[in-house]
Amino acid sequence: MKKVLTILFLLLSVSTFAQYKLKVTVKSYEDNEILSGAHIFINSGEKKEVSDYEGKVVFHNLKAGNYIVKASFIGFSEQEKEIYLNKDTDITLVLRENAILTDEVVIKAVRAGEKTPSTYSNVDKELIKQENLGQDLPYLLESTPSVVVTSDAGTGVGYTGIRVRGTDISRINVTINGVPLNDPESHNVYFVNMPDFASSLENVQIQRGVGTSSNGAAAFGASINMQTTTLNPDSYVRYSTSAGSFNTFKNTLNFGTGLINDKFTVDARLSKLTSDGYIDRAFSDLKSYFVSAAYYGEKDILRFTSFSGKEVTYQAWGGISKEMLKTNRRFNPYEYDNETDNYQQDHYQLHYSRELIENLTLNSSLFYIHGRGYYEQYKKDQEMQEYGFDPLFLITKKKDTINSTNLIRRKWLKNDYYGGNLFFNYETDRMDLTFGGGYNDYEGDHYGRVIWAQYASNSNPDKDYYFNVGKKTDANVFVKGIFALNKKLSLYGDLQYRSINYDIEGLHDDMRDLTMSKTYSFFNPKAGIFFEANKEHKSYFSFAVANREPARKDFRDAKPQQEVKPEVLYDFELGHKFQLKNFMAEANLYYMLYKDQLVLTGELNDVGDMLTMNVPDSYRAGIELSFAWNIHRMLSWRGNFSFSRNKIKDFTYEIPNFSPPYTPKKETLSETTISFSPDIVANTTISIKPVRNLSIDLTGKYVSKQYIDNRQDDNWVLDPYFVSDLRLGYKVNTNFFKSIEFTLLVNNLFNAEYETNAWIYPYYYGGQITYDNGYFPQANRNFMFGITLDL
């Protein structure tokens, strides 16, 4: 009897403490194909993983007991299965295709697909979420290949910038749900106007090079295509808060109704973000909302989306001198208390998609963007006549005349941008064809007002001292398609025609007449080939042409007699991807040949924008290497390395001379390096999951030397830098909350001193060359701690 009890005890102990392995395979019902990238959940998210290249996920160290296993995949109905686990078990979940359309049709026209011969990276919601503690969107994308980011305030909050392959944001095409975001006049995207937008994103695709045809300004270095919240079938409430160095605070409330009557959903977000900034007084006060309501039918989707951002930031666009870097890296040269930028931007989008007949889908979009705001400045010793003031005559013995005054001015911008896109997609087993077009209209008012003056004479508080208006229309039609010759080989073609008309009327703030009218017509062809040798090896080659019109600032800030020309880019891309179950590697070769490229000169205008100039012949050539290795279920390593050569073939520059005879000094250089184009950009991330629900990520980023202007002067560079961050994440499930997630982020772990942007203005005076300059130092070691509650 004692032996029997002992055996029973041992069996009970084994059954209680034994741990088992569960392997889940996900396939489609219609064609029995494996589904790579499906989400598998155990017990409503207690554990979750994403299926690998073979459609499989393995869960380890599960105790004996009952489990509910659920799988979901875009475009398919969810499938769940209840199992009792008492041994190592393999199960297969079979998903059926949805009878309704999915939100992906909204962005299909601007996205690269699996067999598109284009160089691109996808960033999913989970990666965005784990990094999103308050820094702006460019900082959440900086681990992707060839990306360099910068921040005026030094923290990634407020005014931030991004460059891809050395190309600045004014040459990067950005869309939200297929709607163009780049300002039609400046071609810029100011992410500060969209605070905490990452909290409403489903995914982001970055296409490097010309990429596919898109709406808005042409891509001259990259495209960033964002998709906002898609179908959430279950209701949710999520509150996240984070706090950290430099008095940085972020509070976000997300909530959604789930699918109501299998037809309707509403998702919304409210956010507030504040920070003092690393640079002295470079504070940010940011507010935003997001709301999206949708109707899902069997054959159609109707979605209305609105979001808005309001920002107040203290100006830090002047940088600090090279000498000041050694004594006070946090110095801000602005002293006036209200030297602030104030702007609000409202977005409205209406999308309608419908399956017209089998294999043919219509997608249409209407949008409207309204922006208004100003920046305020204190200016000393301003000529009164430049502001419409008469000289002030003092009745004294000397009969003095006052011609200058101290004053406070506000420069205003009010703009309206609206338009629509319409395209059709026809898809069969061997062909995926998309054709359509878009039309956009823009009007922007630029004007200035003096709100205080020490000597105002005949001033009128309601009078504008300058006013000009820019009007721009942009229309495009395109057709693109992928044609499968057989199971391994596909051909790609993409033809786009753009027509642009741009008019400016009125005076600039220096009383120059900006009146002009320009019309451009561009044809942008693209072609490529995609070869899938087997499931492990995929290759592609593409050639694309892009034409791009100059921006408003290119005309406005051009030197006298300088002709501003449109740019042309010929882009060659060659890539190969190798993928196994636990390892992926990718290599991309590119050669981008430019005609009349508008390169950054390294100089700033009076509102902090970089000046540009055409150079006749230039190129960017390089190789991008990426890898991801799941070394062990507790350890993974991913990274990317970009090596490039960025050159102007023959560069003629001139330096102003402010002494008699005032003749500028000219010089011509050969094969000079393009400004702000590092030869090496590298990223690496080591991820460790030592215990259940705990994750540790150690990242590193290296950026090599960057020249500030195009003279390739080693005295004026941004020094190479290496920055490492540490992220700790821990998630627990409770009876009251679905989950509580804690995140600790240590930025600049090793306390590096580095700068990510700069400007320089050389000139001769008295026979000697002088350099006015400004650098933008980034924050030393700093911390952010966040908590997310899923209710």
Explain the overall architecture.
The chain has about 800 residues and is mainly beta. The protein is about 5% helix and about 60% strand. The chain has four helices and 43 strands. The protein has a 22-stranded antiparallel β-barrel. A five-stranded mixed β-sheet has the order 8-13-14-11-12. Strands 3-2-5-6 form a four-stranded antiparallel β-sheet, with no helix packed on it. Strand 41 and strand 42 form a beta hairpin.
> For the CA atoms, what is the radius of gyration?
29 Å
Structural class: mainly beta
Strand content: over 45%
- Given as residue ranges, the uncertain stretches (5+ residues, pLDDT < 50) are 8-16
Question: What is the mean predicted local confidence, pLDDT?
Answer: 91
Q: How many H/I helices?
A: 4
Give the N-terminus to C-terminus distance in angstroms: 52 Å
State the major sheet: 22 strands, antiparallel, barrel
Characterize the overall form. globular
Q: Considering DSSP H and I runs of 4 or more, what fraction of the residues is helical?
A: under 10%
- The beta-strand count equals 43
